[in-house]
Specification:
Elements: E1 3-7, E2 9-10, H1 16-24, E3 27-34, E4 37-45, H2 46-52, E5 59-64, E6 67-78, E7 85-92, E8 98-108, E9 115-119, E10 123-129, E11 137-140, E12 149-151, E13 162-163, E14 170-176, H3 179-206
Parallel strand pairs: 1-5, 3-7, 8-11
Antiparallel strand pairs: 2-4, 3-4, 5-6, 6-7, 8-10, 9-14, 10-13, 12-14
Length: about 210
């Protein structure tokens, strides 16, 4: 799994005004907490943080005043329109420690083309070592027939990873294509032909 180091600066000003100034200067207000440590209020470079967070469940080595804390993003607040990061909470983790995280599920393989694939849940919760969090899991759809589903319990997990989500939680469902659309498509041409026939007869009479 990815582990990225970012240098932070301890905050000396607090409040909404200070946070807005920090954002204008390309910084993101952040809080680090956990393991009985006193919460630490810092600013992080927005660009570096944004790049790091493109990786799912990335571990961040936050360096402040020469001290490094291994952290996991816990809560991210984004601007409602710009979607830039307004604030982030980081929880301290230790190497070898077990954590519960949501991991994305990607799909592969060919399913029945007569069905429409619905992604009901995009992630599943698992327990794993903090430094061994998978970036994603792969769910094989090969042979999945229309009308059937695959569940959290169908996702193959690597050794040391324990499923926390309900095994019966639906991850994907292959719904059957509605016959209503097909019926409309068939009836419409027939209706057009029926309407065209009287019109053609009328033209012949006029002639």
């Amino acid at each position: 799994m990815a582990e990225i180091s970012i240098n932070g600066v301890r905050r000396t000003e607090f409040g909404k005004g200070a946070s807005r100034r920090a954002r204008r200067e390309g910084q993101v207000p952040a809080v680090i907490y956990g393991h009985g440590e006193k919460p630490s209020h810092i600013n992080l470079p927005a660009r570096e943080l944004g790049v790091a967070l493109k990786t799912s469940n990335v571990l961040l080595d936050i360096v402040v005043d020469g001290k490094t804390e291994l952290t996991l993003p816990k809560s991210i607040v984004r601007h409602p329109i710009k979607l830039t990061i307004d604030h982030i909470d980081l929880v301290i983790v230790r190497r070898g420690e077990k954590v519960t995280v949501a991991v994305p599920v990607h799909t592969s393989g060919e399913h029945d083309r007569d069905g429409i694939l619905e992604h009901v849940n995009h992630t599943i919760e698992v327990e794993t070592e903090a430094t061994s969090i998978p970036s994603f899991f792969e769910l094989d759809l090969t042979g999945l027939a229309a009308g059937l589903s695959l569940y959290a319990g169908d996702v193959k997990l690597p050794a040391g990873v324990v499923l926390i989500s309900d095994p019966k939680m639906i991850v994907v469902h292959l719904s059957e294509r509605s016959t209503a659309v097909e019926e409309v498509a068939v009836v419409a041409p027939a209706a057009d032909a029926a309407a065209a026939a009287p019109a053609a007869d009328a033209e012949k009479k006029d002639a």
